[in-house]
Known about the structure:
Blueprint: H1 5-10, E1 15-21, H2 28-41, E2 45-50, H3 64-75, E3 81-83, H4 96-107, E4 112-118, H5 119-123, H6 134-137, E5 139-144, H7 156-165, E6 181-185, H8 193-201, H9 212-220
Parallel strand pairs: 1-2, 1-4, 2-3, 4-5, 5-6
Amino acid sequence: MAKSVADQTRTGRRLVGLLGGTFDPVHYGHLRLAEQLADALKLDEVRFIPSANPPHRQTPQTSATGRCEMVRLAIAGNPRFTLDDRELLRAGASYTIDTLLSLRAELGNEAALCLILGSDAFAEFDSWHRWEEIPVQCHLVLVERPHVQIAEALRPALQTLLRNRYTDRPAALAAAPSGRITIQRINALDISATGIREDFAKHRSPRYLLPDSVVDFIQCHRLYR
């Protein structure tokens, strides 16, 4: 993948944000989160990575191809956002470490991969498959919502990980391809995919919670009924 002008003038290292999830459906909360982090961390790209078989989540209600198409529609027009469907093309559980190794093979060892995690996900991070290998392959960007402190009530292994790898300088992510943890506070939009699915099931309007193109897709395919 060719480097942008911004890459070459800054450090020569490409910064790629990785936002995974079921996206069942994708909504403005996901999009605004990605936009805020792209600005704050000067990311060259944010890859939306729909999960096919998430090991820590319930099975999505919508097919992988349907969720993939909803993401494609939602991010259209934003040059920093891209859809990455590699987990949908891989059999078995959608393990993060496998995705990271695949990305490394594609993007090379010098790109800075920035895995975006919410505070709830990080609290269970040490239960993930081969979790200790993940910070070797990427940086962790922990999203801290107002009135939620990520460092509270973490298990000892995660406290140690955070203490040893933490940086409060977002620019440090550009200095290495992996290995650091930073915490970013965002102004989260109080939107949930569960609530949106309920709106569709009860024939309530979900307008302004997700892009109209995604609403049209859901209605056309009679999803969440």
